[in-house]
Design goal:
This protein is an all-alpha fold. It is 54% helix and 0% strand. It has one domain.
Length: 105
């Protein structure tokens, strides 16, 4: 039997997994959730700065991101997910809205 190698998870995804119960009861824990969301945003920012995917820890080539479509570029700067993880999370291409047609710097 062949063992499947488990894919490492990124820092931001770990925060969500570790605190999943608190996220699920949002109304009861609003202040705790605000703190968790701050932590999550900080980790996403750190991953973007370090050019690593928040989900799979893979190094991200910014040139590849820049060559991709605007939706993929915007999502990188929002979530810090590499192109492969974005494709896995979002089955279909997102609809491009007039607002998303602006270039991402």
């Amino acid at each position: 039997m062949e063992k499947t190698k488990e894919k490492p998870i990124g820092k931001a995804l770990k925060i969500v997994q570790e605190n999943q119960k608190q996220f699920s009861s949002y109304v009861d824990n609003q202040e705790k959730n605000k703190n968790l969301l701050r932590q999550l945003r900080a980790q996403i920012g750190e991953c973007i700065e370090n050019r690593e995917c928040t989900c799979c820890c893979a190094p991200v080539d910014l040139n590849e991101i820049r060559r991709s479509d605007l939706t993929t570029q915007r999502e990188w700067y929002i979530s810090g997910m590499c192109i492969e993880c974005q494709d896995a999370v979002f089955d279909e291409k997102a609809t491009v809205t007039p607002r998303s047609k602006k270039e991402v710097n």
